[in-house]
């Protein structure tokens, strides 16, 4: 018989995270599909730190056998310690605007966004990804803006395939940011927001798990309550401007979703800032003490 392991034959698993079997197939020229007859021998100590082997064996009706081995490396659970002792969040600041920019840095447009912010003396928050110039992330940090974690790949099918997959992606963008600004960031935004439904296609209930677990690991995640809808098809500088100003409120904080990779966002930004200043709003970057804006979960 032929025995094939699906997925990776060598896997890394964080201690405390349950092993999810990727699957296997067993076929025989005479007996046909023997997948249901595969015997899986799971080591008793698989939850302990170290390297473990899972043995798979199938035997056909003639007594012929075929074995396969999957290697599991169990690593110590990462304990994330926030850079400062946790303090109670300050009360929601009515009339504050938190400008947030996703999916950058972009070699041209992010630089223009930073120019405008500097000229207007406004601090913002950038949720960065795994591409774009390192120097723009460093510049944003050096100029007093907050650098948050978004995603390394922005590939939903990979990020939300499992809890392990999410953290693998998060750790990569975290490492990138730390290598550039010299410290870890514990401020994040989920790809698609915590309310995304696309994750259902890949892992049912994963957002319910992740939204609790990231907080337990010392992170704080931020959704939004105002959107420029600048990533939508047909968006213009005028539409971005109107979408933002119509939803601003002085009765709550305003977490504004924008994308610094979009030219029409750049074109609308200065007008948004000047409208807000003229109407008594003030701007702040997100910090670990900023009250979280969280969506209702859809998965």
Q: Can you summarize this structure?
A:
The chain has 299 residues and is α/β, with parallel strands linked by helices. The chain is 27% helix and 24% strand.
What does this protein look like?
This protein folds into two domains: 2-75, Immunoglobulins (Immunoglobulin-like, Sandwich), CATH 2.60.40; 96-283, Alpha-Beta Barrel (TIM Barrel). The protein is built from seven helices and 15 strands. It has helices at 109-120, 134-142, 156-159, 163-181, 206-216, 237-245, 263-278, and strands at 2-5, 10-14, 24-28, 32-33, 39-41, 50-59, 65-75, 96-104, 125-128, 146-149, 187-188, 220-221, 226-227, 254-259, 282-283. The strands form four sheets. Strands 8, 9, 10, 13, 14 and 15 form a six-stranded parallel beta sheet that branches. The protein has a four-stranded mixed beta sheet with strand order 2-7-6-5, with no helix packed on it. A three-stranded antiparallel beta sheet has the order 1-3-4, with no helix packed on it. α1 (109-120) links the parallel β8 (96-104) and β9. α1 packs parallel to α7 (263-278) and α6 (237-245) packs parallel to α7 (263-278). The longest helix has 19 residues, at 163-181. The two termini are 41 Å apart.
């Amino acid at each position: 018989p032929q025995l094939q392991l699906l997925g990776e034959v060598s896997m890394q698993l964080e201690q405390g995270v349950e092993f999810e079997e990727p699957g296997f197939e067993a076929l025989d020229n005479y007996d046909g599909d023997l997948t249901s007859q595969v015997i899986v021998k799971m080591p008793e100590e698989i939850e302990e730190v170290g390297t473990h082997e899972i043995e798979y064996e199938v035997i056909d009706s003639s007594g012929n056998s075929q074995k396969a081995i999957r290697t599991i490396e169990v690593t110590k659970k990462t304990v994330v310690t926030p850079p400062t002792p946790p303090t109670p969040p300050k009360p929601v600041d009515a009339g504050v605007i938190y400008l947030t920019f996703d999916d950058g840095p972009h070699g041209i447009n992010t630089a223009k966004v930073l120019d405008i912010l500097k000229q207007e003396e406004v601090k913002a928050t950038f949720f960065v990804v795994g591409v774009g110039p390192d120097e723009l992330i460093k510049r944003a940090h050096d100029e007093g803006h907050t650098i948050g974690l978004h995603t390394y790949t922005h590939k939903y099918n990979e990020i939300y395939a499992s809890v392990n997959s999410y953290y693998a992606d998060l750790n990569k963008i975290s490492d990138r940011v730390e290598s550039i600004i010299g410290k870890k960031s514990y401020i994040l935004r989920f790809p698609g927001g915590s309310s995304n439904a696309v994750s259902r296609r890949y892992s049912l209930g994963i957002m319910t798990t992740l939204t609790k677990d990231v907080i337990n690991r010392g992170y704080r995640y931020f959704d939004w309550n105002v959107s420029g809808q600048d990533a939508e098809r047909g968006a213009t500088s005028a539409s971005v401007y109107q979408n933002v100003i119509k939803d601003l409120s002085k009765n709550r904080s305003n977490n504004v979703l924008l994308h610094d990779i979009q030219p029409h966002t750049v074109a609308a930004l200065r007008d948004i800032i000047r409208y807000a200043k003229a109407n008594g709003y003030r701007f702040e970057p997100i910090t670990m003490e900023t009250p979280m804006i969280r969506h209702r979960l859809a998965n």
